[in-house]
């Protein structure tokens, strides 16, 4: 058997021959997976060739998880340009094929079909505009845009000129935006006048103006007109529409090293401020492209829809970089699942004949609640595969997704991964025998390890539970925390030496399939988005009337987890509903709407140990309305506070 035989999936049937055989069969998976972990150099040397290199790499993998020397490099001596891989290399064969279908917030407005050729022009224009503002290789650009084509143009334009983008989700507050602009010392922030979403409009430009009050004077602002609504204009503002109309449609791609940063994306952790996850160019693109093709069984001509926002990593890897590297047609949706009604997702699927649909359990639960008649109104016969991401999918939602949306004929890939991992880590493939609620098996090259949480010992065998770590690197792995490599090591490699620690717990069942059991740190998962409890706490205590606060997650029917805040007021302050509202609004403005506490309980005192450590375990139990099993409370400095908290709990099931 030649190398090619060993690593290639065997049968690829064409659509004309009837139903497609899965791209990777069960036998292929087993054989290729073994090969990928036995000899990662050989496996990734081949996969590395799925993208175009300017200078081909000769070194494949050079990675170390060794304490004190965390160093991750893939394809390190290769050079490439990510935007050329996502655009230019497709021009000859598919210049007139649609690259991006843009579906606007309102179904009354027309969708845009952007061909690879037009994408090329628009990205070059944006790249030249950025160059005109003095942006060059290695400079940082913050993108704070709605889900409009210009967001993709901006990402690819940065990649084209070698600038590093950092996208800030348009739902984040001016404070959060300002912190991220300062965090990476950005030269330019790209924003829009307004962001229409679900029929409402967020004033992005005015948010940006507020954010920039706390930034250096020389940060420039490039403004895209989305609605044409009124905005104020300052000296540092530049009109994107005017500048791009005059800009050249040619911009030659910068030659970048495989390990040059492609983007920074801030994400919440269990402590302190969000950290800037850094992804680099070569390995990330190979991994995003391969997972997009293999997990979703993407074939030429398919229409792929990932409903995420480009403000999250899912949008980076599976709206823009993965699909475009594969020459796919990818949908960019500006709206929300329930506007103008609960049939919107399905209307868009039917309208654009979507073949693969990828969304989050929270959206499925919300739509399930609206009733199946919303789905049945629309023709979903082009759907071939469904995907889920962001949190474990509960069996009820899984079954509804399978039966009502997929009509029992679409495999559901439950993809477990993280901002840090760049692409899928654990996921069934379309050929896998599925288990509802399980991410099941590692992707190629991924080496999951289950560790005993306290001793850190490796737990072998099946039917076991522990914390999920990775035993080796994969090309899509983050490389560092922006400006703080020590924090990178501390966060991911210090609890369990020699391993990458995911922060999640997991179970490996009797068959060897993996089930994610949720975060084991102080990170909660609200509607598939990560929120550090420490972040919400520090926002709350920044309010003048708040003395102390502890935040935990609790089960929430639609969001997966809701935010439960215990708040102790300053002496002399009286609890009231008005103050509760005030605190909710406060957190929204400090961080953004996604961080707004769902429940706030006034706590005259918090349960603390004699050394002053808050006993979160107890607070979690009370928030879950499960105080029958509080465990040992005898070590508390003042056990009586617990009775008060139970009596006044907010979540009564
Ligand atoms: C955390 C990462 C990258 C995807 C979007 C979220 C949880 C993610 C699953 C899944 C169970 C999941 C984990 C993980 N998670 N996907 N399929 N099953 N849990 O990215 O914001 O970086 O959050 O989301 O807890 O650690 P993120």
UniProtKB/TrEMBL annotation:
The modification N6-acetyllysine is found at residue 613. Residues 29-86 form the Acetyl-coenzyme A synthetase N-terminal domain. Keywords: Acetylation, ATP-binding, Ligase, Magnesium, Metal-binding, Nucleotide-binding. Residues 88-472 form the AMP-dependent synthetase/ligase domain. Catalyzes the conversion of acetate into acetyl-CoA (AcCoA), an essential intermediate at the junction of anabolic and catabolic pathways. AcsA undergoes a two-step reaction. In the first half reaction, AcsA combines acetate with ATP to form acetyl-adenylate (AcAMP) intermediate. In the second half reaction, it can then transfer the acetyl group from AcAMP to the sulfhydryl group of CoA, forming the product AcCoA. PANTHER family: ACETYL-COENZYME A SYNTHETASE (PTHR24095), ACETYL-COENZYME A SYNTHETASE 1 (PTHR24095:SF14). This is Acetyl-coenzyme A synthetase. It comes from the Bacteria. CoA binds at residues 197-200, 314, 527, 588. One of its GO terms (cellular component) is cytosol. It catalyses: acetate + ATP + CoA = acetyl-CoA + AMP + diphosphate. Its cofactor is Mg(2+). Belongs to the ATP-dependent AMP-binding enzyme family. Acetylated. Deacetylation by the SIR2-homolog deacetylase activates the enzyme. GO terms for molecular function: acetate-CoA ligase activity; AMP binding; ATP binding; metal ion binding. It comes from Roseobacter cerasinus. Pfam families: ACAS_N, AMP-binding, AMP-binding_C. The keyword Ligase applies. InterPro entries: Ac_CoA_lig, ACAS_N, AMP-bd_C, AMP-bd_C_sf, AMP-binding_CS, AMP-dep_synth/lig_dom, ANL_N_sf.
